């Protein structure tokens, strides 16, 4: 496993160098366009606006990977993304609920055309068709889409319509690397499960394997695994020595040195960090705990009695909700936002305080880079909007 991952890391570094060169060449082409405009004897207002636009593109080439949210639209207000009924439900034979790119601007959905399934991005279906497809995932920059597809009796991953040549007995939860260059997925081979990266499976095999995550530098992969009746976390195929009754979805710290995961111990749930559980116990825990940007805090979704809330470093909010999900720290780590369910409606709660607005659908929660605004995608009467509000 070590040699195979060293090879993967070496190939990744080579691709990174190639990508850097491509960026430099792309920037040089934009510089040439600026020079052409500047060399015009007489320039119009449109020319100056184009120069500013090209300069912004150059800046984006070299800085978007650090925090692409800086280039998102953070204007306060509500903007229509899609008329779901008109643009999807009435156009296709069937369709599953939509997924949105991280910036909330692009929509992708699983759609049925005739007897086959595919993905439609912004209403345009892939030309490739499959027997079935599920587990749709956008890349971090929103430019690519991965999905599990069924071809005959086997399953694999398709990225932008192009399926891997490797086929598996089952697949679960594809994930892009932070730079969008690689895709990993939990796969079933025979009666055992493992992780496959770009189609190449780990040598290690497990009785089950859940939703995985890449480390921030893309060099490591963590996944919950099961052997016998116990579960733990495996990093690059190597399990922790600590085992639990069950494990949720693990999450890397920003520096990639630590891993937190929700675990069940004797009927109660808590969070384990690098295998060591919190002292606090809860009725249930959901999804993956999140580290603050500085890696000093951990927030988790926990159930107390019949209600859900957020616990930061083991200490729960006093406010309780019918449900909650999509937890996010603010960039400075001082605030925590989460989508909550109150009655039959959804909204956003920041540090326990819910917005007054209620929505039928609420998803894709994101803080602005300065932490002063929050963006969510909301659904109302078969239409989806991108909503930006001040914290």
Concise overview:
This protein is an alpha+beta fold and 391 residues long.
List the helices and strands and how they pair.
Layout: H1 2-38, H2 45-63, E1 77-83, H3 84-89, E2 94-95, E3 99-100, E4 107-113, E5 116-121, E6 124-125, E7 132-138, E8 145-151, E9 154-159, E10 162-163, E11 170-176, E12 183-189, E13 192-197, E14 200-201, E15 208-209, E16 213-214, E17 221-227, E18 230-235, E19 238-239, E20 246-247, E21 251-252, E22 259-265, E23 268-273, E24 276-277, E25 284-291, E26 298-304, E27 307-312, E28 315-316, E29 323-329, E30 336-342, E31 345-350, E32 353-354, E33 361-367, E34 373-380, E35 383-390
Antiparallel strand pairs: 1-35, 2-4, 3-4, 4-5, 5-6, 7-8, 8-9, 9-10, 11-12, 12-13, 13-14, 15-17, 16-17, 17-18, 18-19, 20-22, 21-22, 22-23, 23-24, 25-26, 26-27, 27-28, 29-30, 30-31, 31-32, 33-34, 34-35
Helix pairs in contact: 1-2
Written account of the structure:
- The N terminus is likely disordered.
- Among the domains are: 62 residues; 110 residues.
- Strands 2, 3, 4, 5 and 6 form a five-stranded antiparallel β-sheet that branches.
- β27 and β28 form a beta hairpin.
- α1 runs antiparallel to α2.
- It has three helices and 35 strands.
- By secondary structure, the protein is α+β, with helices and mostly antiparallel strands.
- The relative contact order is 0.09.
């Amino acid at each position: 496993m070590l040699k195979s991952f060293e090879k993967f890391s070496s190939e990744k570094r080579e691709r990174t160098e190639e990508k850097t060169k491509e960026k430099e060449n792309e920037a040089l082409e934009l510089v040439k366009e600026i020079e052409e405009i500047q060399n015009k004897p007489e320039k119009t207002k449109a020319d100056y606006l184009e120069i500013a636009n090209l300069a912004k593109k150059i800046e984006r080439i070299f800085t978007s990977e650090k925090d692409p949210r800086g280039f998102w639209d953070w204007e306060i207000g509500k903007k229509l993304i899609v008329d779901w009924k008109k643009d999807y439900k009435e156009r296709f034979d069937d369709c599953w609920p939509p997924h949105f790119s991280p910036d909330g601007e692009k929509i992708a959905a699983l759609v049925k055309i005739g007897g086959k399934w595919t993905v439609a991005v912004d209403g345009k279906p892939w030309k490739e068709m499959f027997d079935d497809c599920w587990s749709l995932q956008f890349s971090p920059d929103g430019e690519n889409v991965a999905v599990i597809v069924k071809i005959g009796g086997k399953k694999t991953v398709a990225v932008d319509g192009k399926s891997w040549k490797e086929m598996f007995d089952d697949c679960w939860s594809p994930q892009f690397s932070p730079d969008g260059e690689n895709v990993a997925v939990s796969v079933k081979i025979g009666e055992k499960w493992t992780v496959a990266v770009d189609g190449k499976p780990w040598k290690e095999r497990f009785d089950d394997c859940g939703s995985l995550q890449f480390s921030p530098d893309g060099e490591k992969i963590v996944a919950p695994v099961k052997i016998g009746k116990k579960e733990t976390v495996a990093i690059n195929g190597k399990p922790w020595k600590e085992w639990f009754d069950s494990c949720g979805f693990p999450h890397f710290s920003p520096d990639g040195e630590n891993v937190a995961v929700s675990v069940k111990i004797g009927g109660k749930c808590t969070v384990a960090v690098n295998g060591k559980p919190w002292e606090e116990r809860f009725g249930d825990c959901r999804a993956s705990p999140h580290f603050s940007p500085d890696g000093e805090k951990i927030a988790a979704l926990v159930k107390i009695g019949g209600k859900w809330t957020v616990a930061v470093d083991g200490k729960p909010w006093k406010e309780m909700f019918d449900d909650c999900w999509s937890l996010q720290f603010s960039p400075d780590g001082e605030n925590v936002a989460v989508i909550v369910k109150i009655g039959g409606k959804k909204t956003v709660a920041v540090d326990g305080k819910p917005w007054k607005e209620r929505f039928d659908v609420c998803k894709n929660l994101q803080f602005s880079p300065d932490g002063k605004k929050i963006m969510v995608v909301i659904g109302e009467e078969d239409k989806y909007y991108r909503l930006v509000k001040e914290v």
